[in-house]
Inverse folding.
């Protein structure tokens, strides 16, 4: 059974700091991995998707890396802003033949202080 | 707006009542997913459809839960005889098989509170 763990559970940083969020998964036979952002009481917004054959993806100040063999992904946020405050979730999808479900971690709650 | 929409956004009900939620996926997306998220946790998969066929159900989907997608477009999730433990955010997502990355796009969710 795939298990996804995110560390830390919560993180508070001053504005402008660079930070890294960590995600680990137990079954390396993944199809892809997605990072999402969730604001309180809201749905999920997809930030980055990395296919199993890729090593990283970048979008603006965000960079996500994937090391499938070690079962790890990181989300790097550069020059953090108060508007980045949210919960960040990572989710993995197993190979196509194993179904289409996403398995989520419990998230990292990020607070960026002005 | 061409994103995933869900209705209602909030539902408060008394224990024992039945509730039904609706999800409208992104137009022409052939896969539709339901997830449940309790406070402080990540979403958990419930079920998914490809067109009108329900292809996978989680063991979380007890006999009191039923989902339909009758014409391969919108979907409904019904919970019968609600219990306090059913209180959660119910999230719907859709994707296009064969589309870029088969990425899942999520709706805003329906927050259910069972009193």
């Amino acid at each position: 059974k795939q298990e996804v763990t995110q560390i830390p559970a919560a993180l508070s940083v001053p504005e402008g700091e660079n930070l890294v969020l960590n995600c680990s998964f137990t079954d390396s036979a993944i199809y892809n991995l997605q990072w999402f952002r969730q604001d309180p009481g809201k749905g999920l917004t997809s930030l980055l998707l990395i296919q199993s054959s890729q090593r990283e993806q970048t979008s603006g100040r965000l960079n996500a890396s994937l090391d499938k063999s070690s079962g790890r992904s990181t989300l790097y946020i550069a020059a953090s802003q108060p508007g980045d405050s949210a919960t960040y979730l990572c989710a993995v999808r197993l190979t196509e033949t194993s179904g289409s479900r996403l398995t989520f971690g419990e998230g990292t709650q990020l607070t960026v202080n002005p | 707006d061409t994103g995933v929409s869900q209705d209602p956004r909030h539902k408060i009900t008394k224990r024992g009542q039945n509730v039904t939620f609706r999800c409208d996926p992104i137009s022409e997306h052939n896969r539709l997913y339901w997830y449940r998220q309790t406070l402080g946790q990540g979403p958990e998969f419930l079920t998914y459809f490809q067109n009108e066929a329900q292809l996978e159900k989680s063991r979380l989907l007890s006999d009191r839960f039923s989902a339909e997608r009758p014409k391969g477009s919108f979907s409904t999730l019904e919970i019968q005889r609600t219990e306090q433990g059913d209180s959660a955010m119910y999230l719907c997502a859709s994707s296009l098989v064969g589309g870029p990355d088969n990425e899942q796009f999520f709706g805003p969710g329906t927050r259910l509170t069972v009193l």
